[in-house]
Write a structure and sequence with these properties.
Shape: elongated
Helix content: 25-40%
Radius of gyration: 21 Å
Strand content: 15-25%
Distance between the termini: 35 Å
Mean pLDDT: 95
Structural class: alpha/beta
Strand order of the largest sheet: 1-2-3-4-5-6
Number of helices: 13
Largest sheet: 6 strands, mixed
Bound molecules: fe (ii) ion
Low-confidence stretches: none
Length: about 350
């Protein structure tokens, strides 16, 4: 496995780059905007293809690298269901799995620091975001933080992982890089409490100043969505309402770019074809499945995904590969459902 812990000294943030092998797919957790050039360089040096970029929560102390990485690598951006962010490609919740080639992260919903905080468990390690830090815990006094919820997340979920589980937080201000569940249970001063109320009192008495970057970072991090204006200007976008007229039409094929789990959880537009986003480049190039389908039948390809991010990238790739009639549904199946469109479970 390839595992890199990259430090941003300005915000004391740890970013993690994971891959199962050289030459394979990679994912990145909590990237920092100012460090995106470094990540891209490292990806090239290790011959990795970035396919997913995750944030554990909406950060207040640095600007996320999610949008820039998406624009430069066409990776899928991932956050929790509760994140108040305009558009990410994929949203996950407790019990979901985030997969790339050779690696799986199990998602734990661990609110408290913020109401959108998640931890990601991978085999022998857990990425705890700002929920559990090394000999500390993330503050709970803004962004819908809640000390009681954090107590439940830490004691009810994170400390129930096996003792030897490695703990990799999103920040460290003292120079520590990794800990374990057993170590934190024994030595983390915030966790030496005898009741939930004692923890709440401890956290509510901290009286911390706001982070320096908060007024800049929070609004910036709520807007990571890509610019859809150019795609619409070229006539490559349609609204969910317009798309509803296409179901059952012989001259159009609806193409679902989402992953199997998303389809099972949220349903699909009836009659749509499944062509997962990670295989897109192969599918749209000459000789590829979608390219052949479009040219052989003359049908219009109409891409959709969860929120319209992957499909916006797909329509550009398809147009670039010479599939002139390709377009996508703005806002994805989320907008489709809000417009009253029917969904069915995948067969
Ligand atoms: Fe945070």
């Amino acid at each position: 496995m390839i595992f890199r812990q990259i430090f941003d000294s300005v915000s004391s943030t740890y970013t993690y780059l994971l891959a199962s092998r050289r030459g394979g797919e990679a994912l990145i957790i909590d990237p920092v905007l100012d460090k995106v050039d470094r990540y891209i360089q490292l990806l090239q040096e290790l011959d990795l293809k970035l396919v997913k970029a995750l944030d554990t929560h909406l950060h207040a102390d640095h600007i996320t690298g999610l949008g820039a990485l998406r624009d430069r690598t066409r990776c899928i951006t991932v956050m929790g269901e509760q994140s108040n962010v305009d558009v990410v490609s994929m949203r996950v919740g407790d019990g979901d799995r985030i997969e790339i080639e050779g690696l799986t992260l199990n998602v734990l919903y661990t609110p408290g620091h913020t109401d959108d905080s998640h931890s990601f468990v991978m085999a022998d390690r857990v990425f705890t975001g700002d929920t559990l830090l090394i000999r500390g815990t993330g503050r709970t006094d803004f962004q819908n933080g809640n000390a009681g919820a954090q107590y439940d997340s830490i004691f009810g979920k994170l400390l129930r992982l096996p003792d030897e589980t490695l703990v990799y937080p999103a920040h460290d201000y003292k120079g520590d890089t990794v800990s374990t569940v057993a170590e934190e249970r024994a030595f983390n001063p915030r966790l030496q409490v005898t009741s939930k109320q004692q923890y709440i009192d401890l956290m509510n008495g901290l009286d911390l100043p706001n982070p320096r970057m908060m007024d800049v970072a929070v609004p910036a991090n709520m807007r990571v969505g890509m610019s859809h204006e150019e795609i619409a200007r070229r006539g490559w976008a349609m609204s969910a309402r317009e798309a509803s007229g296409l179901v059952g039409r012989p001259d159009a094929i609806l193409v679902d770019l989402r992953e199997r789990r998303e389809r099972e959880k949220h349903g699909i537009i009836p009659g749509s074809l499944h062509a997962p986003y990670p295989d897109l480049a192969d599918n749209v190039r000459a000789g590829g499945m979608l390219h052949e389908l479009a040219t052989a039948t003359g049908k219009r390809l109409v891409f959709y995904c969860a929120f319209g991010e992957r499909s916006a990238m797909a329509v550009q790739a398809a147009q670039g590969a010479g599939i002139d009639a390709a377009c996508h549904i703005e806002g994805g199946i989320d907008a489709w459902k809000k417009a009253g469109g029917s969904v069915v479970l995948p067969g």
